[in-house]
Design a protein that fits this description.
With 205 residues, the chain is of the alpha+beta class. The chain has six helices and seven strands, in the order αββααβββαββαα.
Length: 205
């Protein structure tokens, strides 16, 4: 800072961001020294965020499953940049809770850079410095996309099949591999004078 005649009066600096950056680097270094092999070879996505929810680091699994081209692509970008619009507010609230010191677990949806929708089960854990101040957020995410899609397809085909079986003019009883009844159409229930609740789960023989 200089006066009108050009003399130097002082220097104005911003220390907060540097402290946050240094704390993030220290947390990452400590994490790397102790758990580098575990983190990098984990089956789940593991990443480190700063207290504003920006990426500081991510393991190989996180980069691959989220279709991030490399680590540089996400560094200092907000975690929320990849969260779908309908879930941004919810996830933002969880980031704030973790920043305040609370560990949280939640489900949400993202959109990858290649425009692919993915579902996640995520845990956020606050990381503290020696003074107890939260300096980073550790995130662990499990990809639920295939599981959710498989479940949705199974439910669709189950409903579709049952609707067809209800319309056929014969009695139909469906059992699983252990012989337990899992479905009976109305024709069967009427003839046997049973209700669905009384036979589902029962052995058919």
């Amino acid at each position: 800072m200089r006066c009108k005649d050009g003399k130097l009066l002082g220097i104005v600096g911003v220390a907060r961001d540097m402290r946050e950056k240094r704390a993030a680097e220290d947390a990452l270094r400590a994490l790397g020294e102790k758990y580098q092999n575990v983190v990098e070879n984990a089956a789940d996505c593991i990443y480190l965020l700063d207290t504003k929810g920006r990426f500081v680091h991510a393991n190989k699994r996180a980069l691959m499953l989220n279709e991030f081209k490399d680590l540089e692509f996400i560094l200092e970008r907000s975690f929320l940049d990849f969260v779908t619009t309908k879930h941004k507010e919810i996830v933002s609230n969880y980031i704030e809770k973790t920043r305040m010191g609370e560990a949280v677990q939640f489900h949400y949806e993202t959109m990858t850079p290649k425009r692919k929708h993915k579902w996640w089960k995520t845990t956020f854990i606050p990381l503290r410095d020696g003074n107890g101040r939260v300096v980073n957020i550790l995130g662990v995410s499990r990809d639920l996309t295939v599981e959710r899609e498989s479940k949705a397809k199974a439910e669709f085909f189950k409903e579709y099949s049952e609707n067809i079986l209800e319309k056929v003019p014969i009695s139909v009883l469906v059992v699983n591999r252990t012989g337990q009844i899992i479905f009976a159409n109305n024709n069967f229930l009427t003839k046997m004078k049973k209700n669905e609740e009384s036979i589902l789960g029962q052995k058919s023989f």
